Amino acid sequence: MTAERQKIRAAEWLYRWNLSSSIIGIVFTILTFMGVFTIVLGPIFTEKFGFTYLQTALLLFLFVLGVIIGFGVYLDKVIHFWSAQATVATTRNPYLVSALYQKELLSLVYIQVPVLKSLRALLEAQSMDE
Predict the structure, then answer these.
(1) Fewest CB atoms less than 10 Å from the CB: which of 2, 49, 70, 84?
(2) Percent of the chain with pLDDT over 70
(3) Residue 90 gets which letter from DSSP?
(4) Neighbours of 60 (CB within 10 A)
């Protein structure tokens, strides 16, 4: 693999990392919750139920996963949270179907574009060094 191709691959992975940062934050939050409460609840679950620390961590993971999935299903299927939000936004701006939401535009302008500019500057600086 050439150096130019490696730079392009690095740019692709950094761009993907940036797009998935919200999901990564959720994953790290879950892992932190599990770690802290495994330490706190581990001795209690060992004494009362005979669980090991691993079993306690798995139980907490299943609980958190159930809460997240349950809350998502509730918001999506029961109260139709996102469809109402999209309807209100489209009613306010009928041309929104082919345009970005304000949140997406702000994310693009203040998060993704600066990351891409800095990555481009880094790649150009490396090409001048070679």
Answers:
(1) 2
(2) 83
(3) H
(4) 20
